[in-house]
Fold:
Amino acid sequence: MKLSYLKLGLLFSILLSFSCSPFSQSTAPARINFALDADGHQLQSGTKYYIYPSQGGNGGGLALSAKDFACPFYVMQENLEASNGVPLRLLPVDNRQQSISLSTDLNIAFNAATICVQSTAWKLGPIDENSGRRYVMSNGVIGRPGADTLSSWFKIERDGSGNGYKIVYCPGVCGFCKVGCGEIGVFIENGKKWLGLSDDPFVFVFKKA
Structure:
C-alpha cells in the first residue's frame, strides 16, 4: 500500500511540473495594429486613398511632378489645401494580405499615368548631387521583394504625437542588405514641396477616394 501511495505521489509531481511548464501555458495572440482611414476603417490593399496633412493649413494632397528634367517624375505635395492630389494604392509585400498593418513592407503607387511611360510606384532615389538629399520619385518596382527592389519598399507608422501617420523608409525585404533608415518629410524648394528623407516627418491621414 505504501508503494502505491509513493507511485501516486510521484505521478502527481510529474503532472504538476508539466502544468507549470511555460510550454503548456496558453499565450494571447500578438495584436496586429492596422492603419485606419479618416473614417476609422482599416486600410485595404489596392483601394484608392488620398493622403492629406493631419493638420489644416499645411497644403493639400500628394501628386507627381517633373523636377530637374522631364522624366522621371517626383512625389510632391500640392500647395493648395483644397487640392486632393492624386489617389494612391498601398500594396503589402504579402499579396494575400487584405488590411494594411503598421510596420509592414509595402509598395505605394499613384493611380495615374504620366508622359514618362513609367511605373508610378514610389521609390527612394539616390543622393542628389546638388542638394545632398534623397527624394521620393516614380518608376519604383511593385512586388519582387529583395535586394534589387530595396528602394521601392516603405512602411506606414503611427506618428508619435498621435495625430496621424508617417511614412518610413526601412525595408526588411532583404536580410543581408545594409539599409539607411529614415522618415519621409517635405522640402520646400523654389515654391514646390518635395518628399524625401527628413528628420521632420510628414504627418498625414488617409481619406478613401
Remarks:
- The first strand starts at residue 49 and ends at 53.
- Confidence is low (pLDDT under 50) at residues 1-29.
